[in-house]
């Protein structure tokens, strides 16, 4: 049975009863009324923009927020139960636009999350938006928008633009995770210290909020979905809304090529078992949605053909100290432990890439690379073996053989990506991994030889 999620704030009661009956919903969403179970704050974003958000721009934020919250609220099952069926009803101001483009949005979300979403829309009848900012910047000088996550890649994107004398408007999505928030604050401080007059930063906070007595029910943190595939949609929307409001055309979503290509590490990780946060096809579909909205902005990933180590070596090491670079956070488990776990795929990519770029090693909860067999039987050990399996495959096979092994490459080609460049990037990454392991981690290097 599909899980039904309904946004009730801003909708007329008769519409709710007639079209999206609250009695049949598994979860109700509200992020503005006194009974809200989530929070979204646009104040800082609006204060940094020279004009107020249009009704359609507010809709984009609300729709992305609803999809983001529904994604978190519905945990995935195991194996065949991994793919979810979610029916989501959202309240919007520009009803005609969303009804006309529902199919495009559904396709985008399904490609991003791998789930079966059904979307319905209701007209907003109760306007409870935040008031427009009283003061706006007298001279808005940004010439592009760049998204800042608190990770290495987005910091590299900001550094690249600033060193090129561009004037990026940096936009963050502050999550409710205190560890990620600390990393984001640290990255902002690093940027302001090194380029004090060259950029402006605006933030949006969107997260579940269940601590108040009158809040509607929402899953507790331990009951929520961890994969959070829809977060990147909210991220892209924030960048596009900022660009559309200021008439800018370029929106940068920086991510290294290894995670962007998202080749499944094994055949067991096909589809949404591998992240698609910066999937070129998703970005293309999102840009089409922006075009339908009449916006000239386009999201683009400048690093699709670079490894993470290359981003560190080429864009960060020349201008920032190792300490500044390592103030970022990459771990999928961030906030649940007092340091990065060392066993998830982002941690493995981070550690290998930092060392390949000549940075000092960092402390992790587990030393998976140093003593892999001590973690045999864990998800972390499986992650390492799967990653090394892919590295071995890429290094040992021709382009033609890899096209047969990874049909995902054909999907990338259909999205306008140069497959030869992707394969070259993946081979360089494989060389980085092999060099680091044979130099520093012989036990892990023996696994590379085995697989």
How would you explain this protein's 3D organization?
It is built from 18 helices and ten strands. By secondary structure, the chain is of the alpha/beta class. It has a six-stranded mixed sheet with strand order 3-8-7-6-9-10, sandwiched between helices. A four-stranded parallel sheet has the order 2-1-4-5, sandwiched between helices. 44% of the residues lie in helices and 12% in strands. It folds into three domains: 108 residues, no CATH class; 157 residues, Rossmann fold, CATH 3.40.50; 119 residues, no CATH class.
Largest sheet descriptor: 6 strands, mixed
How many separate helices?
A: 18
The share of residues in helices is 40-55%
What is the ordering of alpha helices and beta strands? EHEEHHEHHEEHEHEHEHHEHHHHHHHH
The assembly state of the depicted protein chains is: single chain
User: Which class best fits the helix and strand makeup?
Assistant: alpha/beta
CATH first level of the largest domain: which class?
A: Alpha Beta
The geometry reads as: globular
- SS strand fraction: 5-15%
Question: What is the CATH T-level topology of the largest domain?
Answer: Rossmann fold
Q: What is the terminal separation in angstroms?
A: 40 Å
Low-confidence spans: none
> What is the spatial order of strands in the main beta sheet?
3-8-7-6-9-10
Structural domains: how many: 3
Query: How many strands in all?
Result: 10
Give the radius of gyration.
22 Å
CATH-derived architecture of the largest domain: 3-Layer(aba) Sandwich
Mean pLDDT: 90
């Amino acid at each position: 049975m599909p899980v039904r999620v309904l946004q009730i704030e801003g909708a007329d009661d008769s519409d709710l009863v007639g079209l999206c009956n609250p009695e049949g919903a598994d979860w109700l969403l509200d992020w503005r009324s006194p009974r809200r179970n989530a929070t979204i704050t646009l104040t800082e974003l609006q204060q940094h923009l020279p004009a107020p958000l249009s009704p359609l721009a507010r809709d984009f934020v609300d729709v992305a927020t609803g999809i983001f919250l529904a994604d978190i609220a519905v945990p995935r099952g195991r194996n065949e139960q991994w793919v979810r069926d979610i029916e989501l009803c959202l309240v919007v101001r520009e009803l005609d636009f969303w009804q006309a483009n529902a199919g495009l949005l559904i396709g985008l979300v399904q490609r991003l999350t791998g789930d079966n979403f059904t979307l319905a829309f209701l007209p907003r009848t109760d306007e409870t938006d935040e008031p427009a900012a009283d003061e706006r910047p007298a001279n808005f000088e940004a010439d592009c928008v760049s998204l800042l996550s608190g990770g290495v890649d987005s910091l590299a994107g900001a550094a690249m633009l600033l060193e090129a004398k561009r004037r990026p408007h940096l936009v963050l999505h502050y999550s409710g995770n205190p560890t990620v928030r600390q990393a984001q604050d640290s990255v902002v401080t690093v940027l302001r210290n090194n380029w004090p007059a060259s950029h402006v930063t605006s933030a949006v906070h969107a997260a579940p909020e269940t601590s108040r007595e009158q809040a509607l029910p929402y899953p507790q943190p331990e009951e929520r979905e961890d994969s959070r595939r829809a977060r990147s949609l909210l991220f892209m929307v924030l960048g596009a809304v900022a660009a559309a409001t200021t008439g800018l055309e370029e929106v940068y979503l920086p991510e290294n090529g290894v995670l962007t290509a998202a080749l499944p590490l094994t055949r067991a990780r096909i589809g949404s078992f591998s992240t698609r946060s910066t999937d070129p096809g998703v970005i293309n579909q999102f840009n089409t949605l922006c075009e339908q909205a009449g916006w000239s902005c386009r999201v683009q990933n400048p690093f699709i053909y670079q490894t993470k180590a290359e981003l560190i070596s080429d864009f960060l090491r020349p201008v920032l100290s190792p300490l500044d670079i390592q103030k970022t956070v990459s771990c999928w488990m961030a906030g649940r432990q007092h340091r990065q776990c060392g066993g998830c795929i982002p941690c493995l990519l981070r550690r290998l890439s930092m060392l390949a770029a000549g940075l000092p090693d960092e402390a992790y909860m587990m030393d998976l690379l140093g003593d892999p067999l001590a973690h045999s039987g864990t998800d972390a050990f499986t992650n390492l073996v799967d990653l090394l399996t892919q590295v071995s495959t890429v290094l040992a096979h021709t382009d033609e053989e890899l096209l047969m092994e990874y049909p995902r490459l054909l999907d990338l080609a259909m999205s306008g990506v140069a497959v030869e460049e992707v394969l070259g990037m993946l081979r360089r990454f494989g060389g980085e991994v092999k060099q680091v392991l044979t130099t520093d981690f012989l036990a892990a290097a023996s696994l590379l030889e085995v697989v």
